[in-house]
Design goal:
By secondary structure, the chain is mainly β. The chain contains 3 helices and 18 strands.
Length: 265
C-alpha cells in the first residue's frame, strides 16, 4: 500500500511539473504601437501655428509571441510639465486597433508632448510620443497710405534742393541726354530695383524689408522721359527705414525737368 501511494505521489508530482513547464510566459512581451504616416498625418515632432488643427493616426497589435489581446488605449497631453489625460478608453479584447485623432494645437506658445499608450490583457503596455511646438505668428505691419512727391531738375548748378528728397534718399542728379535722366542716392540711401508685380505684391513693412534684403543694391538708375517714359519701381533704404517707391512720370522742359514719384512706408 505504501508502495502504491508513493508511485501515485510521484505521478502527481510529474504531472505538476509538466503543467507548469507548459504555461505560456507573457511577461515582458508588450504589444506593438505605431504612428500612421502619409499625407495629412502628423507622425513626428512638428511646429504648428497657435490653435492649428492636426491629425495623428495610431495603429496597434498584440505582441507576436504572447498574442495577448488589446484592452486599453490612453492619450496624455503634457504642457508646462502638467500631464492631462484626454483619452482613456477600454478596448474589447481586440486583435488589432486603429484610430485617427483630430485635435488642435495649443493657443499658447510652447512645447507640448503627446503620449499614446496601448495595453494588453496581461497588463503589458507600449507607448509612443511626439512633440508639438506652437509659436505665435509674427505680427506684420501694413504699409501706410501712398504719398506723392516730385523732383525738379533745373541744371547742374542747381542749389535750391528742389531736385532732392532726403526722406526717400533720392536726388535727380542730371540729364545724360535729351531723353534720359539720372537719379542717385543721397542721405546714405540705397536702392533695390523691383518689378511692377513685386511692387503690387508688397503690402507690409516686413515684406518690403525682406524684398530689399534679397535684392541687388544700386546707388543710381536712369529713366526715359516723355513719350519714352516707362514706370519704375524700387525700394529705397535710408538708415533703418524702407520705402516702397514708384516713379509715375518724367517730363523734360528746359530749366524745369520734372520727375513724379509716389511712396509707401
Amino acid at each position: 500500500m505504501r508502495k502504491l501511494n508513493l508511485l501515485m505521489g510521484l505521478a502527481i508530482l510529474g504531472l505538476a511539473v509538466f503543467v507548469t513547464s507548459c504555461t505560456k510566459d507573457t511577461t515582458g512581451k508588450p504589444p506593438s504601437i505605431n504612428f500612421k504616416g502619409g499625407s495629412g498625418y502628423v507622425s513626428a515632432d512638428d511646429s504648428l501655428a497657435l490653435g492649428a488643427t492636426f491629425k495623428v493616426g495610431i495603429t496597434a497589435s498584440p505582441n507576436t509571441d504572447s498574442q495577448e489581446k488589446l484592452v486599453g488605449f490612453k492619450v496624455v497631453r503634457t504642457f508646462n510639465n502638467v500631464p492631462t489625460t484626454v483619452v482613456d478608453t477600454t478596448l474589447d479584447k481586440l486583435t488589432s486597433f486603429s484610430a485617427d485623432i483630430i485635435t488642435n494645437a495649443r493657443n499658447t506658445a510652447g512645447s507640448e508632448r503627446l503620449t499614446f499608450t496601448i495595453t494588453d490583457k496581461n497588463s503589458e503596455s507600449a507607448e509612443i510620443a511626439l512633440n508639438i511646438y506652437t509659436k505665435a505668428a509674427a505680427v506684420e505691419t501694413p504699409l501706410g497710405a501712398e504719398q506723392a512727391f516730385s523732383l525738379i531738375y533745373k541744371g547742374s548748378s542747381q542749389s535750391d534742393g528742389a531736385n532732392e528728397n532726403t526722406t526717400i534718399g533720392i536726388k535727380y542728379s542730371s540729364n545724360t541726354n535729351s531723353t534720359t535722366a539720372q537719379f542717385a542716392t543721397i542721405s546714405g540711401g540705397q536702392f533695390v530695383i523691383i518689378t511692377q508685380s513685386e511692387f503690387n505684391a508688397l503690402t507690409t513693412k516686413e515684406g518690403v524689408a525682406s524684398k530689399y534684403t534679397s535684392g541687388i543694391v544700386v546707388n543710381q538708375f536712369t529713366a526715359q522721359s516723355d513719350a519714352n517714359f516707362v514706370a519704375l519701381y524700387f525700394i529705397s533704404k535710408v538708415s533703418s527705414n524702407y520705402y516702397l517707391v514708384r516713379m509715375t512720370n518724367l517730363k523734360f522742359s528746359p530749366g524745369n525737368n520734372k520727375a513724379d514719384f509716389a511712396y509707401k512706408n
